[in-house]
Amino acid sequence: MAHIHNERVMRMRVILIGGASGIAQAIASTVLDGGGEVVLAGRHRESLDAAVALLGPRASAVVIDLADESSIAQAASSVGSVDHVISLAADHANGPLGDLDGTAVRNAFDAKVIGPILLAKHFSPQVREGGSFLFFSGVAAWKPAPGLSVMATTNGAVAFLVEALAVELAPTRVNALSPGIVDSGAWDSMGSGKDTLFADTARTNPVRRVGQPSDIAAAALSLLTNTFVTGVTLHVDGGGRLS
Ligand SMILES: NC(=O)c1ccc[n+]([C@@H]2O[C@H](COP(=O)([O-])OP(=O)(O)OC[C@H]3O[C@@H](n4cnc5c(N)ncnc54)[C@H](OP(=O)(O)O)[C@@H]3O)[C@@H](O)[C@H]2O)c1
To answer: Would the keyword Oxidoreductase be found if you checked this record's keyword annotation (predicted)?
Structure first.
């Protein structure tokens, strides 16, 4: 079994949208370590190029803005066939309802919900036999909090989207991964608020620690390689949604 698993990883060609983010980098490194190839996608060429430079010659970059369908269609034809399409993109619209800007809310849905639907539309003809889509949800959907209604709704929609697409795109598999609080770099702009959030998370969740990108990468690899898993949302949150 281990042999089959390794063979699959070695042959893998994966595109990661939101590819310059912390979790994407950990997944990309895991695929590359196994002998695979990665294409990083996102809105900003400079951050993609910087990430590719760190990953080495089996990594490349393509610009995709999930709010722009033509960029998705162009990338699908320029990238060609892949084994897996992973979208980690998130564009946050957090804050009290009274302060929410409609455009920011729409951008959040573009990144997490509409963009993945359009990725499925344009990339499904490019996904090789045995391949899959993997979309990123998040613990906020199962643990609502004031100011996080958009995050909860977009992440929740991902869980239903993968069930629908698993049926529509069969036999291509479609899964979701829902991280808990992970030290991916995304929280660094919070300053000392990050320390408080992480200490609270580690105190209250069942595993008593925050997640690391490597925790998420290991779970993602399992969803990519287990060809009997489709239409699921895998919670990799240290049990955070239960606390
Ligand atoms: N870190 C956590 O604690 C945590 C918790 C729960 C869920 N998650 C989920 O896990 C995933 C990865 O999280 P992360 O912390 O590594 O990264 P992140 O900081 O949330 O990264 C988001 C990425 O999405 C890209 N992006 C945003 N809008 C886009 C668009 N319209 N088109 C294409 N790309 C777009 C951004 O790149 P550009 O701006 O350069 O385009 C960025 O690379 C996200 O979906 C996040 O919601 C994370």
So the answer is: yes
CA of 213 to the centre of ligand 1 (A): 13
Q: Which amino acid is at 56?
A: G
CA distance 133 to 110: 17
Nearest atom within ligand 1 for CA of residue 213: 16
Q: Taking the domain 2-233, which CATH number applies?
A: 3.40.50.720
In 45-140, where does DSSP find H-type helix? 45-55, 69-79, 102-109, 115-123
Length of the chain: 243
pLDDT (tens digit, 9 = 90+) per residue, 2-40? Answer: 454 556 666 899 999 999 999 999 999 999 999 999 999
Q: Is the peptide bond preceding residue 171 cis, with omega within 30 degrees of 0?
A: yes
- Ligand 1 pocket mutation, candidates 15, 16, 21, criterion most atoms within 8 A of CB: 21
Ligand 1 probe mutation, 49, 88, 233, most atoms within 8 A of CB: 88
Nearest Cα residue to atom 6 of ligand 1? 138
Q: Please answer whether residues 240 and 201 qualify as being in contact, where contact means their C-beta atoms are separated by less than 8 angstroms.
A: yes
For the segment 212-223, what is each residue's pLDDT rounded down to a tens digit? 999 999 999 999
Task: Answer positive or negative: Cα dihedral of 140, 141, 146, 148.
Answer: positive
Binding-site residues, ligand 1, Cβ < 6 A: 17-18, 20-24, 42-44, 47, 64-67, 88-91, 110-111, 136, 138-139, 179, 181-182, 184, 186
- Please tell me the distance from the alpha carbon of residue 79 to that of residue 36, in angstroms, as a whole number: 15
In the DSSP assignment, the letter for residue 142 is: T
